[in-house]
Design goal:
With about 400 residues, the chain is of the alpha/beta class. Helices cover about 45% and strands about 15% of the residues. The chain has 18 helices and 13 strands. The strands form 3 sheets. The chain has a 6-stranded mixed beta sheet, sandwiched between helices. Strands 2-3-4-1-5 form a 5-stranded parallel beta sheet, with helices on both faces. A two-stranded antiparallel sheet has the order 6-7. The protein is globular.
Amino acid sequence: MDYLPRSIQKTFRDRLRQFPVVAITGPRQSGKTTLVRKLLPRWKYVSLEDLDMRASATGDPRGFLREWGQHTIIDEFQKSPDLVSYLQAEVDRQDRPGLYVLTGSQSYQLHEQVSQSLAGRVALLILYPFAIAELPSSLREQPAWTRLLQGAFPRVVGGIPPEVWYPSYVSTYIERDVRQMLAVKDLLQFQMFVKLLASRVGQLVNHVSLARDCGISVPTARQWLSVLESGYIVARLPPWHSTVRKQLVKTPKVFFVDTGLLCHLLSIHSPDDLACHVLRGQVFENFVVTETLKAGANLGHVPQMFFVRDAAGNEVDLLASVKGRTVAIEAKSGETAIPAMFKGISWWREHSELDAAGIVTYGGGRTLPLAGGKAIPWNQLGRHLTATWK
């Protein structure tokens, strides 16, 4: 597959002109290395996945940085955590933008290291799998259930069948990374845990139920979920806390970072199966959440994202805010847009002081003005949010 331009490119170049260090995190195989090497073809590249390079960086960090010098891409930077302290001294000595690019796939480790030691010197960006707007028109215009089933990881977009690639991704990256971080003794239990999470996508997280059904302790369930979130496998969507007069639900929901991965874990193998599946609405809502994440991240922001639900069953699927501009989003998988889809947004506007534009993302193909807001086709959501937040 030829290189497909990424929407984050402008943000990346801007940050490189502004900061000495740019760090890019994101899921494994989301295209981080391809992106930076394509945009910086003359820069040197070293990966700390290489055991010899890691030993050099860990054993003699000053010598490692002196050998590689400025204009270096350091991949999987979190694998040599002490290197960041020496990098700080090197950055302060040269004191100018565009010196180093760091990449990694474990958000907690990388953010913790660079945020503390390189405060004020580093720009942090997140690269997710492809947003719909980044895909060729032939893929953007596929039926919704085909597109959601295939997902958006570069290898799948490039032509590897999802039924071939996702099993390998799960065994090679998810299970390997977690086993390294947690020393999981019973892999079957962890596999069951991940599949149970998939079966409860879009639902309120119940650690007690997850733990009981997997035969693990509640603290272990919490720990495993945190590690999956740190590795950009899942994302937790917290509830909105405000002055809404009715009692609000206070438990977060969980979503997966890619619908193709989610469908694989749910054993959904065809678009027709997905279209008829009992969880089709949750898979569609998952897509809306991840497209929203990508729209903000590609602009260099982590959107503030929440859902709203009260004890009476009133709810809004998603509130997303970047730079103070808030959008209330309803996810409806049906292909026909009707005013009743805005019921949740109308309730929210009546009970909240927060000003928010209202949109419904649906399975149809036309942008329609309706009472309460706009109905946006599923494959236009990212572009709409980008235009709103730019």
